[in-house]
Amino acid sequence: MIRLVLPPHLRMLARVHGEVELDIRGPVTRAAVLDALEASYPMLRGTIRDHVTERRRPFLRFFACQRDLTHEPADAPLPDAVATGVEPFLVIGAIAGG
After folding, report:
1. What is the pTM of this model?
2. Exposed/middle/buried for residue 4 (C-beta within 10 Å: 0-12, 13-18, 19+)
3. Model confidence at 11: pLDDT above 80
4. Does the residue 77 lie in any domain?
5. For the CA atoms of 61, 49, 44, 42, what is the dihedral angle to 10 degrees?
6. What is the 3 state secondary structure string of 26-69?
7. If you placed Cys at 10, which of 2, 6, 28, 52 could pair as Cys (CB 3.0 to 4.6 Å)?
8. How many CB atoms are located within 10 Å of the residue 43 CB?
9. Mean pLDDT, rounded, for 23-34
């Protein structure tokens, strides 16, 4: 099981509290995690990544094991600690302003 932490506005949209657990078959990549998330919570389709291009939406970032994975390829394997459920995969809402 993969543990996934969503920002508050996406947890509210998906009607979940706390972490989301996802069962991933095959390689554990960001794309696989987001595919499983959108399959389990269809209301989140298009909120994390664009429907067509599948690019990350602005102001969202991805972290795991204290590393920023935002600009890593979507098909790159996630750290073993995430793949085994020891550490969560984090989707973080970035803050902007001036």
Report:
1. 0.91
2. buried
3. yes
4. no
5. -140
6. CCCEHHHHHHHHHHHCHHHCCCCECCCCCCECCCEEEEECCEEC
7. 6
8. 11
9. 95
**CB contact at 8 A, 77 and 83:** yes
Q: Which residue range is the domain that position 35 belongs to?
A: 1-60+92-98
Which residues is 2 bridged to in the sheet?
A: 22
Local structure of residue 14 (DSSP, 8 states): H
Residue with tokens 């657990």: 21
Structural tokens at position 5: 């932490």
Is there a contact between 7 and 91 (Cβ–Cβ < 8 Å)? yes
Q: Give the chain's domain count.
A: 1
Integer Cα distance of 21 and 71 in angstroms: 23
Which contacts qualify for 13-17: CB closer than 8 Å, 24 or more apart? 13/43, 13/44, 13/47, 14/41, 14/43, 14/44, 16/41
Distance CA 37, CA 4 (A): 9
- Two tokens, residue 41: 């919570």
Q: Is residue 44 assigned to a domain?
A: yes
Instruction: Let me know if residue 84 belongs to a domain.
Output: no
